[in-house]
Amino acid sequence: MKYGKYIIENDGPATWKILARDNMRVPARFFALKSMLSQIYRDNAIKQIINVATLPGIQKYSLAMPDIHYGYGFPIGGVAAFDVEEGVISPGGVGYDINCGVRFCRTNLQYNEVKTRIKDIITGFQQSVPSGVGSHNAIRKLNKQELDKVLHQGSEWAINNGFGDAADIQATENYGKMEQANPAKLSNRAKERGLNQLGSLGSGNHFLEIGVIDKIFNKKAASDLNLEENQIVVMIHSGSRGLGYQVCDDYLHRMVKIQKNYDFELVDKQLSSAPFKSNIGSDYFQAMSAAANYAWANRQVIMSLANRSLEKTLSISPKQLGFELIYDVCHNIAKLEEHDVDGKTVKLCLHRKGATRSFGPKREELPQKYRRSGQPVIIPGDMGTHSYLLLGTKKAMKQSFGSCCHGAGRVMSRSAARRRFNFNQVKNELQNKGIVSYSAKQKTLVEEAPDTYKDVNQVVMAATTAGLAKKVLRTRPLGVLKG
Amino acid sequence: MNYQILDHTADLQVQFFGKNKKELIKNSAIALSQIAYEIDLHEVENGNCYVLNITIKESDFSELYVGFLREILFKINTSEFCFFNVEFKKLTQTTLKARCIYDRGEVCKLKNEIKAVTYHDLSIKKNREGWSAKVIFDI
Predict the structure, then answer these.
(1) Residues of A acting as catalytic residues
(2) Rounded to an integer, what distance in angstroms lies between the CA atom of residue A163 and that of residue A93?
């Protein structure tokens, strides 16, 4: 089939290849069910995968996951791997919310024990975790020395300061810390923005959600994760807040200014990049790593506040609650990883923008407890339907550099959502499904209405059909605090 | 109408208008304040006047324009400045020196987070009515 002048071929189950032409250095590949194609073609995201394929040092494919949709520069759901010797690093390929990510936590609670208390639980969350535009002051304001420690230590800082347990580190991607972090590479503006936002959700699609496991697909895998049907779980979606936005903005602007010094042509300024080994490329990687650490500390603090809030609301002990982090995944990040390229193991700078790592068994990066099974992959849906917990696969290592989708993916703009829905309609629809919702702003709830997203069931089916991950269980939302 | 919000699947695309480049820049600053605070201009025009001096030098006009928007957004997001006028001391293709007039306080509370200005599909055009710029913002 054709997309403008580009030829698209089926390349396996739920897998599509765009043949390289013109200035594309590699072909592009995206994952989708056939029934999803017309929607994907409509919003021009395909052009963005093609654009990424023109960047220097890109390996094998410019990729997009099944939740692909139109972004800026990279598509949302975009994955690209660059050779660290000859390739580039791109702030726009990571995005503004550096290390935006999701946590999945278990509890000992059963649905029947809490089904009448969901409103109280969401009220408790709302009082404990600042949410909404510019939210801040979840914990005392940090001074500059403390902020530098957060930027160095990530999750570890939060745990050392009483937010969570040492075991959480083992259940966090990269153990909650990028070693390459260097706070000296952040501007004063970026640091200033980070002083009082730690432990806050932020706005937009960020959330804190309580849900129930309503379907198990793989009993053994679920049991290994200490999860079962009717169990209450908590999910957290947030990132690096204003500090991360500022890091991206600072470095993107600097790279745009010096782009003419490099011998490659850009098809989109938002893809401005620098050689990974250049001074500015290295500076950005160190700054981005520090912002990633801030995001891990942020989610760690939010999780701890949510844990305490649940104990308080339900008047139960930590032991009774049994709150435990299953895994924390990041979906806006650049990382150094080794992958097979044409039979050789090559060190690559993996960019995932709106894509989750999905490492299969035996990868050294995984903690011992997940090294046999593959890592947990968390796919939150919209607030009215389901979310999924999957496991990474060996096939994903070959097909997508060990990557999978990060959510359902938007299909409708926020302004279109406001034209189509109103607050009461969305609130009632959620209530009819038994879902309690709270949003700092009524408008956010409308803009995040379930119908503004793709059907997460289809997106997950595309991912599993393509072999990017395998299903373990599904959850149903009971209550959600939106940003 | 000095600006119009266009449909964009994931983010915010805005088209700004002005009779000339100066007005385009001024209207962009005011429009960003209006979007961020969901506020009518007259609510702040009769309030306090504070001045932020901005100087930007870039290699061309589109960079200059983006540079200006970045500064305005930074102040909106971090200091809750609500801009309602821009007076130019100098404006060329590569240099902008301006006094940006703003209010702050109770009426200027952030309601919408505009994370950043992007370069993707950026267009600045002159037409029969004057100038317009289309910009995608990350939200």
Answers:
(1) 406
(2) 31
